[in-house]
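dude i think i finally got it to work??
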Amino acid sequence: EESVGTLERTTVTDTMEAFDNFLEECDSFARDKSAAEAPPHDSVGQLVRDRWRELRDSGQVPGAGAEAVFKWRERVECCTVGCEDLFEASVAAWGDYVELEGPDVVIPDFQRVAGHLFQQLP
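look at this
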């Protein structure tokens, strides 16, 4: 795992912008159901990682620490979407997910409550 100290602001903003562009690509496939072209991947995780790999291979990754920022952004998106891995999220259904207004906030003690509920399952 990449260890980084202080990151350049442009590394963070450029990486975040690239990730958001990848998600916009998912949105475009999901919202334009009549598109003749099928999504290039079934999962959001595969599309995002392939696009990131293409940036890396072309030498366009935005600076030292970008890989760590990318992995962090992937984890944040998992929390936002409510999945453990973006490979669980469908490109074809991406536009069907409802984004709530306001900031993404983790509910305090959510893990403890969820754990208690899971223990009650047979």
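Helices lie at 9-31, 44-57, 66-81, 110-119.
im so relieved honestly
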